Amino acid sequence: MKFRIAYLACALLVVSTASAQNLLDAVRLSREPLSTGARGMAMGGAMTAATNDYTALAWNPAALTLLEFQEFGIGFWNGANNSTASFLGTTSEDEISNPAFNTIGLGSPVETKRGHLAFGLAVDRIYDYTRAYRFKAVNPNSSFLNTNNFLQDPGNRGGDYKQELQDYNLAWNLFLTYDIDSASPQLSTPFTGGLEQSGSVTEEGGLSAFRIGGGVDIAENIAIGITANMYWGSYDYRRVFRETDVNGIFSSSDSLPPLGFKSAEIIDSRNQSQSGFGMMLGLLAAPSEFFRIGITIETPTWMSIEDEFRRGGTATFNFNREESSSGNADLEGAIVNSYDITTPMRFGTGFAVTVANATFSGDVKYTDMSQTRFSNSDVDISDLNDRVREALGQVLAWKVGAEYVFVPAGLMLRAGFSMDPSPYKADGSEFDTKSFSGGLGVLLSKSSILELSYKRSSSVTDHTLYNSSTPDGAAASAVIDRDEIARHEVAISFGYRF
Description:
Oligomer: single chain
Number of helices: 8
Strand order of the largest sheet: 2-3-4-6-7-8-9-13-14-16-17-18-19-20
Number of strands: 20
């Protein structure tokens, strides 16, 4: 058998992959955003009432009224994600990092006869999708190569069935199925388990926001504000999945594949472009000069997703000779799908207490994730919205922060803690994300400041590599049942008031 390259149309994959939407899309766009500015990160994100610069556009736009001077700010960020994933009793580690521009913005107060009025605009990085994990273990129970999800049997026995497989079917073109005839018309394989399954999953990309807003006093010591957010970004997913006959299950002398099977590699890639719009309304009250309280309401965010999916692969067979026979196939073009996601409203409240040179702050944010909705898809997704209501629930996140100012030295020390519960109803507390943070600010002059912060987050999650059935109807699945994630973030920002 000679090496062969086959270019496949993608019609048969539409059934399983056109439904690119899943709960992870909703969770990815609804979780707590990155902290805007180094000060906000260092204080654990407890900034609804503690923010005091242009970053109020992200935390609470009513706090723009606290600006006394025009100001400019810029910040940079780096995030590293460490994964320790357990698959069938075997642990694999992976690490990935991503430096990014974090924020740039302007804030400006407007002179008024009474009260305060201020405006601001900014460009912020609000989500970073960078994640990665690996897996490697022998699966004695099933094989992805023998699932309906992979075989994609067209089921059409009329006409030139073999030509249809030749034109459209990846498993057939990789020689991973038995031949078909009138007695055995269904695609079938010899893969029942015992193969080593290994590979990696990498996610990259992020979401940014252009913000514009303002705040105004409506009464003594009471201000309101509004921020309009326009979002854009991208999400890139790549999975490399391998199955290898490390135990010598298949003979090396068989004359035809798949019985001379040695290994196979299936590569899935997904690329999304994202755009959307949302708003934040804020209120800030200062009953005394030592105490402030803030309230925010974030409207649903309307996100438009353009999704492209590709699948390709390579299979190798050993026929007891020096060279190996190999099949290699790629999809011709991509499966393109578009749909919208509407994220739920988010309600927040927070306080800030200033005693001497110390500030203490706390925030609580509430989101009902079951209100997430998918719409305007190229395929029917009503069942997905049903799963959203069944699987996702209410989330109550909380954060605390502190700051102490050493006035003579022009130095500020900060620390914080946050707890972001998992949105999945079935998850226990170990799936919550817990974060510790700290940082400092240094006055470079009366009008400029340099700020640095660090944040460490930890959580546990799981991953489904596949969950399908065999052509005979038996269940087939592979799950990474525990992935311990440690995330390290560093931010540095510079502010100038004039």
